[in-house]
Amino acid sequence: MFKIGLQGGSYASPSPSARINGRRPRILFITATRIGDAVISTGILKHLLRQNPRALFTVACGPVAAGVFQAMPQLERLILMPKQKMDGHWFKLWGQTLGTRWDQVIDLRGSGTAFFLLARQRRILKGGRRPGLRLAQLAQSMDLSPPPLPIAWYSEADRARARALLPDGTPYIGLGPTANWSGKVWPPAQFVTLFHRLRAEGLTDARPVIFAGPGPTEAALAKPVLDALPDAIDLTGRLTLPEAAACLARTALFVGNDSGLMHLAAAAGAPTLGLFGPSPVDEYAPSGRRTAAVVAPGPAGKAPMDALTVEAALAAAMALLKDEGRIAA
């Protein structure tokens, strides 16, 4: 069994709990389709793991988010839910979970699935957008205060791969120049300029690491930054999500657009600076012990990313680095 990395949050050893009627409790956790929302939901799972150290968990999520949970402790089953016509994915999930007597069903998607399953306890997050951090919304649905921070799980094999890709002895600055929508993408030239300014401000021996997902769109967004930084380590499309988390945990700083990678970096414990324009920072700012967000000037929900200056991003990045002791205050 792999030893799980828990840099994204504390995980205290819980006291033993009794089995229910001589069996291990089973918990069904229905969570997000997208990587970022899935990462945010890991704080709830972290809480449930503490409260139920003998339970077996089944996690249902979108296919692209599956890697967020692959190395989770006590995971019995991972159910992928590709979207189908006429909400067919919900009927399929019901068929895959109907035969189990669940001790808890937690549905963060607000579906009615939980009402049609045998369950001792149900928690269902109401659908629709609401003001405030998504993290706090999930915690409120579970009556948790303060909200438990997200966590990134990865194995010892993932940690070893990260050490091989990013050896000790060099400070690494992770850059995440991609996003799932072009409106959320900071201009590549701004990323390049910011990296050079960080070097000039004290991280003289820092090396850039470019993080991006698989596929031609991600590669195209990352290419201008890679071309302008010839000494960059290119991790575009090369990593599983647990491997990416292990690599992100080794960075001295991660700067990225509002994306799943930004949330994964924060959960992995990297000092994380999120860059925001038209996307709602009040809902999706990175959540972690060492995080910050900087927002482009302009109307909320309409601010253009190219209005976000390098100077504003640099000031926020330097504040994070000073808090970490990487640069003298």
TrEMBL record:
GO terms for biological process: lipopolysaccharide core region biosynthetic process. One of its GO terms (cellular component) is cytosol. SUPFAM superfamilies: UDP-Glycosyltransferase/glycogen phosphorylase (SSF53756). Keywords: Glycosyltransferase, Transferase. InterPro entries: Glyco_trans_9, LPS_LOS_Heptosyltrfase. CDD domains: GT9_LPS_heptosyltransferase. The lineage of its organism: Bacteria, Pseudomonadati, Pseudomonadota, Alphaproteobacteria, Acetobacterales. This is Glycosyltransferase family 9 protein. It comes from Acidisoma silvae.
